[in-house]
Design goal:
Putative kinase, kinase, 5-stranded parallel beta sheet, alpha/beta, Rossmann fold
Length: 161
Amino acid sequence: MNKGTLTFFCGKMGAGKSTQSIAIAQQSNAILLSEDEWLSSLFPNKISTLEDYIKYSNRLKPQIKKLVQALLNTGTDVVMDFPANTVSQRDWFRRIFEEVDAQHRMIYIDLPDEVCLKHIEKRRLQQPERAQTDTEEMFHRVTQYFEAPDSSEGFTVEVSQ
């Protein structure tokens, strides 16, 4: 049986990962899973710091992994709007697709900080519920951990700007 393809994204906060994930899921008739939606639904008003995000994201990941693998096994394409911004985050994605022998593609959105900050400012106005976490301070705090993908990691990477 043919397996589905897993598509996921690497890019700094505000790079447009969510926007591109929606477009790609629609174009490819794939299932879209958004970490922000899952977290806000399951843990409402619980995430106000980076530490909160890490804590609740780690609670979510085991079940999401099982769900995505089940979908891939049925031949369903899955687009994940979950960050692949560090080597360790990308290793989680690797386990998802390798354990079920599915194809993958990582889309790396490579934008300068100034553009990302403008996107964050616009998003904060459009989604006031994110005003507490979508700040320049949070951008710089999160960006210090960002690791651009390297060819030695062995992913199929498409660069977008």
